[in-house]
Amino acid sequence: MKITYFFISLLLLASCSSNKKQVDNKATKSDFVLAFGSCNRIDLPNLLWDDILNTKPDVWVWGGDNIYADTDDMVALRAMYSKQKEQTEYKKLVETTDILGTWDDHDYGLNDGGVEFVAKDASQQEFLNFMNVPEDSPLRKRQGVYNSKKYDVDGHSINIIILDTRYFRTQLTPDTETSKRIKPNDYGDGTVLGDVQWAWLENELNTSKADFNIIVSSVQYLSNEHGFEAWGNFPHEVDRLAKVIADSKAAGVIVLSGDRHISEFSKREINGMNYPLIDFTSSGLTHAYRGFTGEPNKYRVGEVVFTESFGLLEFDFNAKKVDFKIVGDNGIVLEKLEQVYE
């Protein structure tokens, strides 16, 4: 997404960080720690990797726009990925932490791009190189970067389900009637995931015995009123995902998203689920929408964070609880949310 950025006053910066606490995972004694983020430029200061390292995550999840390439030139794309991999603190993270992730439009290669991008197969291979996926991995032969990985911890488990909202996503509808950029397609028109990925996702949820199931989507699932990219531009796909999650009876389903250059929590009650669905948006790592003045989101919980940040999820298996934290520079917790999954 293309956004004009503005500087905000020192007073506002002070108010964002006042009365905030630093992350201390030793104090929380979390059973499993997941850190994630999106919107990361290699030509801007990478301020947060030391803070991410300090949380000692069990896994780091890229939420998309991991670099800003916007190109079908694979030499240029490869060079940008290589530069990110050599960033000192990120390199330390790779050496100590499991790395998962998806892409979004700017590392996919085409702004707001989807199924029509001509270089998507070549771009996928460069993405997999960046993620250090072995040459003989089945992911090298799959169309799209969707995948999953389960983590077993002392008789409990977390299943991380990575979606690809680019490779199969069909045409968006420009909004020519309002100041918004995109409007929802007619109900039933188009797809976010495509038939093959939908079938795979349904199987992942239907067969999962994990305590928690984390769905990673590069674009927001619940927030849908802003007029930028989101699942809400395909309203039938929003309904389909809600039904798939509810029908699966999968435990502790959580959505992680990025893209927006803001961070926020969204929460929605869904028929057939005995806990609310949370969409935790964390964006961006190196640049944020500092000119943010507000936008509607009927599912929002808490305040929008529009300074650089990353997301943190701390899991307590026995209490069936997750602490969600939006964390800024110097490890300051900017916003937090707690949810118990009975």
How would you describe the overall organization of this protein?
This is Alkaline phosphatase D. With 342 residues, the chain is of the alpha/beta class. It has a single domain (10-340), classed as Purple Acid Phosphatase, chain A, domain 2 (4-Layer Sandwich). The chain is 24% helix and 24% strand. The chain is built from 9 helices and 15 strands. The strands form 3 sheets. The chain has a 7-stranded mixed beta sheet, covered by helices on one side. Strand 13 (310-316) and strand 14 form a beta hairpin. Helix 4 (74-85) packs parallel to helix 7 (120-130) and helix 8 (194-207) runs parallel beside helix 9. The longest helix has 14 residues, at 194-207. The radius of gyration is 19 Å and the shape is globular. The model is unreliable at 1-19 (pLDDT under 50).
- Give a count of the beta strands, DSSP E runs of length 2 or more: 15
Supply the helix-strand structural class.
alpha/beta
The biggest sheet amounts to: 7 strands, mixed
Shape: globular
Number of domains: 1
Please give the CATH class.
Alpha Beta
From the 3D coordinates, which CATH architecture would you assign? Answer: 4-Layer Sandwich
InterPro entries: Metallo-depent_PP-like (IPR029052), PhoD-like_MPP (IPR018946), PhoD-like_sf (IPR038607)
Keywords: Signal
Protein name: Alkaline phosphatase D
Domain PhoD-like phosphatase metallophosphatase: 48-264
